[in-house]
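Exercise 3.2. Students should predict the tertiary structure of the chain below and write it as structure tokens, then compare their answer with the key that follows.

Predict this chain's 3D structure.
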Amino acid sequence: MPTKTTSSNHSVLHGLLSDALSLGGKIKTEIHDDFLNLREVFSTHAEHIIGEPKLIRPVFSFMRKHEPLFVTHKLAIVSKYDDAIEVLSNEECFSVIDIYAEKMIETTGIFVLGMDDTKPYQQEIAWMRAAVKREDIARLKVLATGITEQQIKIAKASGKIDIVTSLSKLVPTEFVGQYFGAPGPDQVTTQRWMRAIFREIFLDLGNDPTFREQAHNAGKELVAYLTDLVETRVSQRNAGVTLPDDFLSRLVELQADDAELTNQTITRLVGGTIVGTVPTNNKAIVQSLDVLLKHPVAFSLASEAAASGDTELVTQCIFEALRYNPQNPLLLRHCIKDCVVAAGTKREKIIKAGSMVIVGTESAMFDEDKFPQPNEFMADRPMENYIHFGVGQHTCFGKIISTMLWPAVLSPLIQLKNLRQAEGSAGKVKFDGAFPDHWTLAFDTE
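Answer key:
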């Protein structure tokens, strides 16, 4: 299976958007039909485009200046910050159901990220929140830091470390097992399940049959595993056994006083929660460090902050670095009723019911109206302006955990002496589609 973006992939997307942005009446009438089903327009390897926002950054830059709200009767592309926030915050007009729900049902089962703001959504998100405690963050930080320091200690024997296999995939995989309570048969299997399912739900815009089969198989295996695990925990609870203090067990404990929280529901909640844990954090850790290494001044700032224990500044450097290459540069929504966006401005448009809406979150974070001097690396921007985790009802459930995790992993790493890309091909990030698979860094051991 190909794992690299082809030049034809690039030209298809650039050609379509360039034509669309020409705004000629003839183009508008012809191009909207090409966009009626976004999944058919993009090649089956569209995730490469999503995984490399630099490919579409020039297009979005042009849009912000000349056509910030591109609208046909079946497609809308949102490029400015305020409009992105407006769309993502308006669940009454812009739904996630037609975007994600079916694929979730076919893999792990319906999950809150594929539900609108209904009574079932409110009930299920309440159960999830009840299973997470404030003090968990400190516990997870100790776990992440401990794993990172141990892996660095091992790497000092050679002066090299593959940060993907040793850190950016390993640490969140340990979170899935030790904190969420679902370690899987082994780490490799857990990582395979997460990647296959996440890819199908969030990245497979081309409906690649191979990706779909992999995800469906992974979903069946994961659901079977979780079903058995939940049944075991319920039996242990009923027998008076003290359960492990993890997300899954807390849901099982909640079930004792809430008959509506069935075993099947717990299976869905755990499955839906863990699916994004490894893929998204892996991408964020690798891509932020890659950007920092390409900006020596920013890297020095982050390294010095890490050495002085200034976690807040390290976090700001990571968030700013991710602006250049976010773990998710685009979000999709389905317009379920005619809606005016950017009312009262020159760019005001009506997005028609039935439209696919592409929200350029990466583009929004290059909007100079919200991010002055957008092409400059600035580590003092307001943290609340970044939208790496989305906005509104469907803000990422793991936001607080990831915000802790990234600096916990990167702080010890960026303090290594003369940290740099290894020589040759090993020093370049190897991707499986949009997912980092290997990246070897070198450092001085003396």
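Discussion points: The CA atoms of residues 54 and 248 lie 39 Å apart. The chain has 20 helices and twelve strands.
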